[in-house]
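Q: How would the structure tokens look for this protein?
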Amino acid sequence: MSQLTTSAGPAFALDPHPSPTSPAARAEQLVAPGFGVVFTDHMASIQWRAGEGWSGHAVVPHAPLSLWPATSVLHYAQAIFEGLKAYRWADGSIHTFRPQANAERFQKSAQRLALPELPAADFIASLEALVSVDRDWVPGEDGTSLYLRPFMYASESFLGVRPSHTVHYL
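A: Here is the predicted structure in token form.
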């Protein structure tokens, strides 16, 4: 695995998608993607474990999640999300608007749901790492953007009323 360096925080390991979308198929999907129905080839991933903290910073292939029936998020709804957009500028560079504000809102949401706070630098670095890998998914036409939807959920398999001891951020 290679490493993706970020300006905001930790490096992310890169696990490249084994069969990424072809440029022709991607161009076809981006003509009229609709909202929330077309997805990039990768996703950022970080895990948290009680007593250990955050680890496993990686950009991995976009794929289904596998959850046990007793995964706490399914029973106690410990999950949060944020939404923001990545825009391509005329010079080809890609920017997000105020990701620090999104990171702070994400932390406040985590506090309210008894989830661990993801450091703002990790949140922003995850966006940078993902967009650097899937930059070809960011459209360049006026009024278009790539919607980013970071989320976190309680991933421990248990039935009981307490905060989860494991959490997954994607």
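Strands lie at 2-4, 12-14, 42-49, 53-61, 79-81, 84-88, 94-96, 146-148, 151-154, 166-169.

The mean pLDDT is 95.

Upvote if useful.
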